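Now read this:
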Amino acid sequence: MASNQVRQRRSRLLMTGTIVFVFAAGGVTGAFINRAMTHSTPSATGGRTATGSTSSTTTVPGSTTTSPATSTTTTPVAPVLSVASVTPTDGATAVAANAPITVSMSAPLSKVSPLPVLAPTTPGSWVTSGSSFSFTPTTDFLPLSKVTVTLPGGPSGVLGADGGYLRQSVKDRFQVANGSVVRIQQLLSLLEYSPLEWVPAGVPIAPSDTKAQIAALYKPPGGNFKWREHGWPAGLLAMWQPGVDNVFTRGLIMSFDADHALTADGAVEPGLWGALLGALSSNTLNSGGYNYALADKTTPESLTIYHDGAVVATSPANTGIGVSPTPDGTFPVFERLRQQVMRGTNPGGGRYADLVQYIAYFHGNDAVHYMDRADYGIPQSLGCIELPLADAARVWPYLAYGTLVTIIN
């Protein structure tokens, strides 16, 4: 009985030892399999390790699982395109009317890149070459034109050969040179605003030839001026000076301004040039003739009106008193009113508010107008030229914008 028990115990011990050995052997085997599975897998080409590739693994009980590698795709960023320089430079003035415009970029341009935009436009063509745009006008810009060169930005804007584009629009501004005063005088003569006739030396430029007409604004054709009539006073004749922007020429410009919705100040401004050519092209001529007013402070004081070289009205007048005289000189009419209450301060300090009529301002607060007085022909005003009612009504139509008023003696 005892021997049987001993035999059973040994059998159990033997079985237990066998199981332990198997488990131990299994652990060794598992460790070996695990080491084999985590070793780098040879690639299909040349037996080298495929770095960065995604591979599948077989999970073996007791082994360590390796996570698959992942790949990342990066979208390339388009290069930035920028403006290197623009000629004429931003803010430039007195630029030649036919000067080429050049825009240099930071990198070569695409052949399909959008072109810069000009405002105002003029005939000509853009050329794209390398990293530059260039524009050559075939017709001059008008004098004093304020030109804006816009380089469009954004994805649909200026495009580089490498795909880069201008991030934001860029603007360059410059102003064209002024034209010739002689040509202004010629055109105002052709439009019959001037008391002088201009006769060209050669074949006249056709009004419809826009290119030649604009070119003539800078280089006037030759010709001669001559007075249309011969009844003008010597003082007016002496004021005429070809090519000089004096009060005589400013008066002509003011008359034209008033008829063409421009500011009647006699200034040579950008809008004047286009308006002159427009009137010439449409043959819109002045129908009011030329007027001139001469105030003489010699007692008895008077005002004489000339129209187209002839005296059309004479009136007794009152000019300014000693402490507030009417200034000597020549001045163009710059404002006209049918009536107005004039307000101010008398030399003694008292205030006045006088209703006056048929008003034509020519110098500051000084004007030709009707003023109710007991008599006329002596200094009584504070600088104005006062007329009787009937005479003021008769001369007022001749005192148009730009009409010169000369005060003498």
Summary: The CA atoms of residues 41 and 49 lie 6 Å apart.
